[in-house]
What does this fold into?
Amino acid sequence: MNSAGSRTGLTILLSTVNQLKTRAARRRAALELIAICSQEVTCEVVCGDAVSENVQTVRKISASRWRVWLFARMAELRQRESQIFLVLALVIGALTGMAVVAFILLTERMGMRLYPMGGAPWRRLLFPVTGSLGVGYLLWRYFPNARGSGVPQTKAALFARDGRITLRTVLGKFFCTSATLASGIPLGREGPSVQVGAGIGSVLGRFLGLSTEQVKRLIPVGAAAAIAAAFNTPLAAVVFSLEEIMGDMQSPVMGAVVLASATAWMVLRVFLGDHPLFKVPQYQLLHPAEFAVYAVLGVAGGVVSAAFTRLLLGIRARFLRFPLKTVWFQPVAGGLLVGVMGWFVPQVMGVGYGFVGEALNGRMAFQLMLLLVVLKLLAVTVSYASGNAGGIFGPSLFIGAMLGGSVGTVAHHLFPAYTATPGAYALVGMGAVFAGIVRAPMTSVLMIFEMTQDYAVIVPLMIANLVSLFIAARLQHEPIYEALAVQDGIHLPSVESRQRYGQRQVIRVMRSASDLLPAEITVREALEMVRSSASRTWLVTDRRGVVGVINRAWLERELAERADKHLGVLMDALTFPHVHTDQGLDLALERMGANQIEILPVVNRADIHKLEGVVTLRDVLEAYGVSRA
It folds into this structure.
């Protein structure tokens, strides 16, 4: 390429780049431009006298050959997005696993240094207050999107923000949550881990220039990796990602989700060893009547779950009404409450998994467990509602274990020969409250099963979960994550809306076929037959069945050139517009618009010519609540 031609072509390309609207589009165009420049001997010769700021940027980048090579390879990778998706799942799983390991080590070791068991009470008052004050300022000033649990923010990124989670948010979530939990605020690390894992996937996908749809598909991949490492439960992580994040157990990203979950789980075991989150004794069902006690535990779990959700949402609504200038020190309210409680009851502070282990093994007094249900519920709701960084996964397990242990203690005292030890009820209580708060029953069952590796606990857990979910849904209709998102002005698709969307299928509105034209007649004959018809679309059929769809405009257009041709000759019997009974009405509407027709044939999946009915434009509009005059 000569210098003058290069200069002219580059000027045109740079002008085009400047006119692109989105940052992602400009970045992709710039990468292509850099790849072109890398084929020249030097960028200096190619650029010539161009003085554009973009030209200067290209000069600086291309001055380093390895960076030019890197960006050129990235441009090639974008052409093979589907092939590199599984490789990205491995990388995201490994990075997320290491981030969660650092999370665990940082929060636990800092917490033991700041307020060790048996330490002076003033520590338990000072550090929650100072920690919440410092983190509150950081969240307000530098990391506004790192506030809260992490799961609603992850779902918002997936459904409302084109999969975008910035690197600043990822770093802010990691460090602010670490400082919050280390200072003794009783929130969880699992929800923030979900946002960190999803953010790693989003950052990598956008850095490689992947399409928006591919970046969005990386969100559940990172979320599954985070849960697998945080709980040491890879199977439950897969189900949670599909059940709660995606809302679709048949999602096409399942393969990548499984791969990332397994990778993060292996990273966890490499660094922290093969240790379960909780060590529990073997479970035994002593008598079938014990199932009734588990049902009672489910009722209690549902009531506590609904109370937790309603209290958290109510307190948070009050904090949101305060002036914006108070946001930075609002978290102190949670820190102060935790500090006062911690002065008298140290078990309230922190995540408290060590105390959960004591309850699971029956080594905690009934009065203390019952007290911790109340205190932990208040401390967690106020801490979260006031704006501290942290999740509700861990607190829900803590409250559930204490509630289950309390119910189990009473039951075992009343019916010692027919009930198991309180530790078994603490285990089931964890799942019941988790299912009631998070509304993820399948995740709850699998999580407890993977923690215990005891199949005998499955049936009691399923009973308690089902009852808890039913009671919680009756007392608090809106799930907590959707409600939290609504408070932030984000409307996420609920499970009910997705179900209603799935119910709008062709089979629900299709009718018997009419307005059929035989394929053996000519175009002229067909036009004569339909001249007095009120319809504007007709199906063409032969001995095989339906072979095409035509409208009046098509007949009038063909009349001028091929009036004596048979309709069957003019039809493409394999590619005519059609739908199947299990497809959505939105697809039917799209195909009607693309082909300018008002009737679509509904055909069999096994035989495209087998006509099962028709769907009309009027029927589709009425199904969506739109009626034409």
Notes: Strands lie at 516-518, 537-542, 545-551, 599-603, 611-616. The radius of gyration is 31 Å.
